[in-house]
Each structure stands twice: as structure tokens, then as C-alpha cells.
Write a structure and sequence with these properties.
Length: 283
């Protein structure tokens, strides 16, 4: 994605330098972190950059949100959850290393994330850094965060309102937290609220597009199994509302994300491009 490509070398270099310091868990943790769009760390750095912050100092904070994302995918793929055997075009972590090791690797990545977020950033007020840590924790945790959304998702959604609640929790709040954390780490408290809403709406749009691609895309392009929700009688937004309504909702939440940007004085170019890229992506 062009919107975040300038930040990816820093993200990748930081991730390659991470270590759990454990000879058993380093390999599955690195395996889990290998691949993906890097949307969450890219968004954190993009938000910080748009706010005029020195994003080049925030590689470890960005890596932290990717660690949380990788942990969530490890656990989401487990037999007790979605029971998936393919992620990023390769066997899921529990298929490659076993269930117990996968669970522990996920636990380690989640813990490592907060170690990274807590490392002092030179020149940043401790209160702003603490606020960034709190944002990320809420986005990843119980309702309305990611874990709460996963719990709701296990129950399934039979109407659009319920589906949107799940999407907001699972994807919207983590992305909103990444954007808000970027603003905090740039020292732009006044931009936090609007960027949080931007990320939340972006996340819902992202999830709608993901569900559309589950119907319209290909496994080769997506790097994971498709039509899983239909097979498990757990309808996604396309199954609930139809493709036309899902497409309309995609445009609505994309527009909401763009509207949030108009509330603040930041560099909007890349943030706007990111909305467009995610809405029209093919994988």
C-alpha cells in the first residue's frame, strides 16, 4: 500500500530485530510475524507523521501493535476458535509448531508488545506515552476491544447491527487505537479523538471489504481459506445483507473515516490515500 510504504522499512527492520529470548518460542513468534499488510504499525507511524511527529523514533511502538495483531491471529486460527490451517499463504502457527507452542508464542507476543510500548521515547512527555499505551490496551482488550469482539464473533451475527458491533470491536477499535497512539506519540493531543474515529471507521470499512473479498476474491491472492463463514453457518455481512448493501456500507464507513480527518489540522494526503487503497484492494 502506497500510503504506508515509506514506513515499512522501519517496521520490518524493527520486527527482524525482536526476540523473545527463548529458544523454543523465538521461531514460532518470528513465523507469526512474517507476512501481512503491516496495516496497524503503518497506521501508527502514518498518524504520527501526519501530526508532525518524528515517526522514525517510533519503530518499536509500531512493532508492538503488530505483535498484538500477530498474537490475535495465532489464537484466532486455533482449533478452539476458527480452526484455520492457512494464513499468509502458509500453514498457521499451530499447524507448523503445535497447539501448545502456538498458544505460548501468542502469549509471548502480547506481553512483548507492552514491553515495547513502555520503553521511554526521548523528548516525549511520559503522560502522552502512557496515554498511547492505554489506547492500545483498550483497543486490544475486553469489549469494546478486540478480545470482546472475538467473543461476540464466536456467537455469530444474524443481522447487520450485530455484525457492525463485532466489526467495530474486532477491527475498528484496534485500528482506532493505532491511529490515536500515533497522535499521542507525536505529542498532538488535540488530534487524538478525530484520528481514533478515523481509525475505527477505517477498520469497519476494512472488515466489510474483507467480507466482500471472501465472496469475490481468490485464495491465492488472499493467502487464506475463503468462504469459511458460510461453511460454518456464521454469516458475514455479505451473507446477511447481500453484496450491494455491503458495498454501500463500505462506501459509508470510508466516507465517515474521511470526514473525521476534516475535523483536525493534519497532513491528510496519505491518510486519505489509505482509505481509498483499502476500499479498492483486491487482497
Amino acid at each position: 500500500m502506497k500510503a504506508i510504504e515509506r514506513y515499512l522499512p522501519l517496521v520490518e527492520a524493527t520486527i527482524r530485530g525482536l526476540s523473545l529470548g527463548d529458544e523454543i518460542l523465538d521461531a514460532p513468534a518470528a513465523y507469526a510475524l512474517d507476512g501481512g499488510k503491516r496495516l496497524r504499525p503503518g497506521l501508527l507511524l502514518l498518524a504520527a507523521d501526519a501530526c508532525g511527529g518524528d515517526w522514525s523514533r517510533l519503530g518499536r511502538a509500531a512493532a508492538a501493535v503488530e505483535c498484538i495483531h500477530a498474537y490475535s491471529l495465532i489464537h484466532d486460527d486455533l482449533p478452539a476458535m476458527d480452526n484455520d490451517d492457512l494464513r499468509h499463504g502458509k500453514p498457521t502457527v499451530h499447524r507448523a509448531f503445535g497447539e501448545a507452542t502456538a498458544i505460548l508464542a501468542g502469549d509471548g507476543l502480547l506481553t512483548l508488545a507492552f514491553e515495547l510500548l513502555a520503553e521511554p521515547v526521548a523528548g516525549l512527555r511520559p503522560a502522552w506515552q502512557l496515554a498511547a499505551v492505554s489506547e492500545v490496551a483498550r483497543g486490544a482488550g475486553f469489549g469494546p476491544g478486540m478480545v470482546g469482539g472475538q467473543a461476540l464473533d464466536l456467537e455469530g451475527a444474524r443481522d447487520v447491527e450485530r455484525w457492525l458491533t463485532v466489526a467495530a470491536a474486532k477491527t475498528g477499535h484496534p485500528l482506532g487505537a493505532a491511529a490515536a497512539a500515533g497522535a499521542w506519540l507525536a505529542g498532538r493531543e488535540a488530534a487524538v479523538g478525530a484520528l481514533r474515529r478515523y481509525g475505527q471507521e477505517l477498520g469497519i470499512a476494512f472488515q466489510i471489504k474483507d467480507d466482500l473479498l471472501d465472496v469475490q476474491g481468490s485464495e491465492a491472492a488472499m493467502g487464506k481459506r475463503l468462504h469459511k463463514d458460510i461453511a460454518k453457518d456464521r454469516p458475514n455481512v455479505v451473507g446477511i445483507a447481500g453484496e450491494a448493501a455491503a458495498q454501500a456500507a463500505l462506501h459509508e464507513h470510508s466516507a465517515n473515516a474521511l470526514a473525521a480527518l476534516q475535523e483536525i489540522d493534519v497532513d491528510r494526503e496519505r491518510l486519505t490515500l489509505l482509505v481509498e487503497e483499502l476500499a479498492f484492494r483486491t487482497h
